[in-house]
């Protein structure tokens, strides 16, 4: 039953993928982006103020997964160990003891109390990208901030896509009065001032990533649902849908098996652009101070710091670079995807 | 849609129309140019070794032909033979194509080679010396301008008439083409005209500058059969009056026989045969020409009266189908009007026989198909496999198993994102959900074999996607999808009208074979008298939602009673 995939017998999505791969810029952007995201998922291993592994007086310790009291390493207090403390560091180097530190020995919230310059301190051997105005390592913040932004963007896009597809599919397939009512609802809903609502909500609720995700999701599905609706309206008239109905296939099956796969082109095309929009939204809200709670590593907050400390060029410059790179990669991917799915360019 | 007022005889045209349109003395006497070869018979257009290729793929492979002034040459071939590209490349209207060869045209200012002429000079020839009409007038006319404006634009550009003059001339031109109330129609937008009127407006626009050569690319294909004759007569009349040459591009041999002087048969980018129409039709030399001429579908069905004991598969009495129609204004808020697409239809499809339903677009024949399939609500009695359609999906399921469908467009009737196995096996998923995957696959293969498709021709057939198949093969897939659940009745909604003639013949043969072997009944819906003649036992003629005439195929086609049936049969005879 398995047939070697000749270029002829490839499914439409497979052919689109082959067209996508032929676009070097987009394909490389995708590879780089995936590598960066995977790396950032292991941010704890890359950038942390705790050693990955400690060998202390004949025993192994894993500070990354467990908290150890300072007493374990010969300290005086029964508090979690501060592994940046010169006393602890010295202890961990005594005799046969050794320890493996991450590449960047700072977490996103670690304050470097031992910086040689006042905060924000310029890039140095200790802090490769310098510190921000509270003495936190900038590189660590960028890594964690990038991860948060990308995950937030993914989550927001995913929710928007799922809700958008469902509402769009129902409107387009059922049509008639349902469609009419839904369209009017979307018009009313879409005319709500999103930013004011966010300000109001941030005053009522304690800010958190989850609340932010919920609020932005409430408004993020509408654009997509219009496209899916149009696709469903078009595709439900097609003869293959009629043929399926004549065969007695149920409505849900028709929507799922027959129409949906043929309606996903706009959804897929817009994915990277929606994601970059989501990242930008989070960044700008953070910049305004309406976003994630204080202390959370975020690109927007860093930009705000950069604005407040113009002379600390390393803050704004490196944040700006990370942001531009992320959005650029997404845009290149989106462009390539749009070309790959363009029906007019099919099968060149 | 077609108003009866459209039927206009060319000879009854207002005489002053012709005068103004030519801007000179009336030249109706030139009508004889076509029949008598004049003394001065240098070629109007002489094409030598024309080659057109797209991205390295040659579509037209070195063809030669010539057209004399006032001659009607038909370029005939199936889709993909390169006939339209040939015409477009003469005016260099094809994009991204590499054109080579020579096309010497005797224009206003001496002979020129169309293929090497500078773009600027060529623009002077387009519309002026060589005009073109297209297949689909709805897309060839700009929807945002009135037809009068569009014709006037040509006159202003090519003849430097003032806007007022050109508007007047446009009305005259429209009147020339037999459009009633030409002054009012000139102010209409394309969508306000019927299909036939639109094509007439296109012709008026093409003839605005009295071109020496008219390229007509399938000018009647998008039109109903009765309109085709009218447009053809109009073209003949105008051609004779103006003494212009016509290059007619078509796949329709009836049209060629009726219209052209000479014929050139194109196959796969080459001209395989050329000669006077009568000679080519009587003694075709090339095998492909013979195949084309032979492609008229042959009748090969089980004849005889239906077994009166056997119950009819589909029975309708006073069938009435309506569509909701919005009422303008406040009244429309509260109730809907209705458009009656079909009313008072009574018929039955006997077991193992074919009921042919013939009609033009808008006659309600496709509505009839949808109602028979239970896909559109209806009033009156309609029994499919002895059971009436209901609102209940579960009780309909039994009828669905007995009544299946094959649609017209082989491209939209198969989901592009499903494999052949998924498409053909869909019916089994619904009607035999308990079937194991292996058994289902075996049944799919059996159904495919029955429509003449197997793994030997198409390795990996089951995992292929529809885009890899040609139109005829797709139509076979659609038939296999319907057959797999062993229906009693197939509703065939124009099953072959999107196919080339030779493919059409093959598909019809397949359908005939299936009927003979399986005793299938067909409800065959078509606009093509030839298809009816080959397939049907009973015939029903529909027009504007009404049954005009019904009876056995011999009665209706040989001795049509209703005048409409008579024109229909005559138009294709």
Provide a descriptive summary of the structure in words.
The complex is a heterodimer of chains A (348) and B (573). Helices cover 62% and strands 3% of the residues of chain A. Chain A has 348 residues and is mainly α. The N terminus of chain A is likely disordered. Chain B has 573 residues and is an alpha/beta fold. A six-stranded mixed β-sheet of chain B has the order 6-7-8-3-9-10, with helices on both faces. Chain B has a six-stranded mixed β-sheet with strand order 16-17-18-13-19-20, with helices on both faces. Chain B is globular. The N terminus of chain B is likely disordered. At the A-B interface, helix 10 and helix 11 of A face helix 15, strand 16, helix 16 and helix 18 of B.
- Tell me what portion of residues of chain B adopts beta-strand conformation: 15-25%
- Averaging pLDDT over every residue of chain A, what do you get? 87
Order of the strands making up the biggest sheet of chain B: 6-7-8-3-9-10
Portion in helices of chain A: 55-70%
Tell me, rounded to a whole number, the average pLDDT of chain B.
85
Q: In sequence order, what are the helices and strands of chain A, one letter per element? A: HHHEEHEHHHHHHHHHH
Give the assembly state of these chains: heterodimer
Largest sheet of chain A: 3 strands, antiparallel
Gross morphology of chain A: elongated
Task: Report the count of strand segments of chain B.
Answer: 20
Q: Give start-end ranges of low-pLDDT stretches of chain A.
A: 1-7
Largest interface: A-B, 26 and 45 residues
Q: What is the CA-CA span between the terminal residues of chain B? A: 23 Å
